[in-house]
Design a protein that fits this description.
Helices cover 65% and strands 8% of the residues. By secondary structure, the protein is mostly helical.
């Protein structure tokens, strides 16, 4: 479905492209995160677990920045994860504002069990595109995402 906006050719093309991008992203996200509910995880919680699993411990601020979340939203997400014993937050003695976030053994077990399934779903979802198309799409998304 395209835009119903009656603008210039350039505006209509941009809006139609944006609509297609958003719909494709939302549809793909829905397919690739469907399994999260089986693990009682939100997309944000999964992002935290995946980041800590692959990058190691990091500050709460760096984690929020990496996941494109506000620090307030990240605090809320982390509190819930801490209650479930999936992560641990440790305040720095040197700088009271710095909070380091690490995976607990329970969090590590959960993400190491879930992640291979997640990868498999993504591989299946992307299979509609050839390898060259995946490379082209990745480059286009990067170009769009990096513009200032």
């Amino acid at each position: 479905m395209g835009t119903k906006y009656q603008g210039t050719t350039r505006e209509i093309q941009a809006l139609n492209t944006y609509i297609k991008l958003q719909r494709a992203a939302e549809t793909s996200l829905s397919r690739t995160t469907r399994l999260l509910s089986d693990y009682n995880l939100t997309v944000s919680q999964f992002g935290v677990l995946e980041s800590l699993y692959h990058l190691g411990s990091m500050s709460q601020r760096d984690l929020a920045e990496k996941l494109l979340k506000s620090t307030g939203n990240m605090t809320s997400v982390l509190k819930g994860m801490e209650k479930r014993n999936l992560i641990q937050r440790t305040r720095s003695e040197a700088d009271n504002r710095y909070m380091e976030v690490t995976l607990t053994p329970k969090g590590h077990t959960l993400i190491s069990e879930y992640f291979p399934k997640h990868v498999s779903i993504i591989v299946d979802d992307m299979a509609v595109l050839t390898e060259d198309e995946q490379i082209q799409l990745a480059a286009l998304c990067r170009k769009l995402g990096l513009q200032e």
